[in-house]
């Protein structure tokens, strides 16, 4: 069964004295969240694993689960008290991570849990900028439907979601933003429009 598989996986990680994944200096809870191991994450939380513990880059288990789109683990972590507004070292929240990777169900859930859809990252981007740059139309639509201004500039160079969508050549996102009233002539701080 799944729990026995997860226990075997956990024993293997301990025996090898290593934890696989993309995160440096990670913890078992972060690894379980990243790889979608619900039973392991639940077991670790029951045994007192700190739900808001972060790795060396400030990434929490909630960031990992949100990035990967593991909604069941996102819910488990929130029920255990995970902070939906936690920033990693780049000032990205779990909502940024989910929006950037197109995980609409996680974006919806975190927003319903009170996560701010207008939080800026260290480089001034908001979740809508991240979603537009990566071509995640459903996330862009959701954020606009929640009242997000489709023409709002980032806090760094004044790039609007339209700049990000054109940079990534995401025609469907460009068309959607245009249909929602975003301008193709919006100028960033350097004087460039999305067409440049």
Can you walk through the features of this model?
- With 196 residues, the protein is an all-alpha fold.
- The longest helix has 15 residues.
Keywords:
196 residues, mainly alpha, 49% helix, elongated
Topology:
Layout: H1 2-16, H2 28-34, H3 38-46, H4 61-68, H5 71-79, H6 94-100, H7 104-112, H8 127-133, H9 137-145, H10 161-167, H11 171-179
Element string (H = helix, E = strand): HHHHHHHHHHH
Structural class: mainly alpha
Give helix % range.
40-55%
| DSSP summary, beta strand count | 0
Tally of helical runs: 11
Main sheet attributes: strand count, strand direction, barrel closure: none
Shape category: elongated
How confident overall, as mean pLDDT?
Answer: 87
Straight-line distance between termini: 55 Å
* Low-confidence spans: 14-20
Q: Over all CA atoms, what is the radius of gyration?
A: 18 Å
Beta-strand percentage range:
under 5%
